[in-house]
Specification:
It holds the Pfam family DUF1353. This is DUF1353 domain-containing protein. The chain is of the alpha+beta class and 226 residues long. It has one domain. Helix content is 46%, strand content 15%. The chain has 9 helices and 9 strands. The strands form 3 sheets. It has a 3-stranded antiparallel β-sheet, with helices on one face. Strands 2-3-6 form a 3-stranded antiparallel β-sheet, with helices on one face. A hairpin with a 6-residue loop joins strand 2 and strand 3. Helix 5 packs antiparallel against helix 7. The longest helix has 24 residues. The termini are far apart.
């Protein structure tokens, strides 16, 4: 009887410890030190689009990243992308997606922006940690995170039927699905991109501060999604 109680107590203690670790890491992740890791390097080939728009990159094998909380994010073989999940207006500041030091993170980010199978907030946040894991400096990773928080795609169920007219400003690319889900890619001007880059460089904001400013500046958009 005493042995059974001891085993139960031990199991309960282990479960409580595991739960505490999970809550400490998940889902906003944590830093410093824990940045996750990639499973190898992406095997890709470039494919000419044939429409005057340049090239796409095709993933020839599954490629994975494990974030600091232990979740694995996998981009599937056969996926083709042109890196559009990172707003082009920021490329002059951070480099093109497949040429810079964040290219591995861009593969993961592009896949989940394409599938929309995870909340957009988590997808953009994991991009930050994957960038660090790929060797990007913290300052640049924060600028990349700022870029996708402002100009990266967002998706979810529209809270109202007037989303396109009341929440998504003119210039944003938006699609509505029969299910009621909405996907939109906000428009960011070069002036806005430069201002944001200057803010990140001068203040070294926390990720929470970046989130708060994005929420404040784009409240009309984010307020229209569930």
């Amino acid at each position: 009887m005493q042995r059974t109680a001891l085993v139960a107590l031990l199991v309960g203690g282990i479960a409580a410890f595991a739960a505490a670790i999970y809550l400490w890491l998940d889902p906003r992740f944590r830093h410093p030190d824990g940045v996750g890791s990639f499973n190898g390097t992406p095997v890709v080939q470039f494919v000419e689009q044939g429409d005057g728009k340049g090239r796409e990159m095709e993933l020839l094998q599954d490629f994975s990243y494990t974030d600091p909380s232990g979740r694995t994010w996998t981009a599937k073989a056969g996926y083709k992308t042109d890196g559009a999940s990172i707003p082009a207006v920021f490329w002059s500041l951070v480099g093109a997606p497949f040429e810079g030091d964040y290219r591995m993170a861009a593969v993961i980010h592009d896949w989940y922006c394409f599938t929309e199978e995870k909340p957009w907030q988590d997808v953009h946040r994991v991009f930050y940690y994957a960038s660090l894991a790929g060797g990007v400096t913290e300052a640049k990773a924060k600028l990349l995170y700022t870029a996708v928080m402002w100009g990266g795609p967002k998706w979810g169920k529209a809270k109202s039927t007037c989303f396109s007219s009341c929440h998504a400003p003119t210039g944003d690319a938006m699609t509505r699905k029969p299910s009621g889900a909405v996907t939109f890619q906000p428009h960011v001007t070069p002036e806005e991109a430069s201002e944001l880059a200057k803010w990140v460089e001068e203040t070294n904001p926390s990720l929470e501060a970046i989130d708060e400013r994005a929420q404040k500046d784009r409240l009309h958009e984010l307020g229209g999604l569930e």
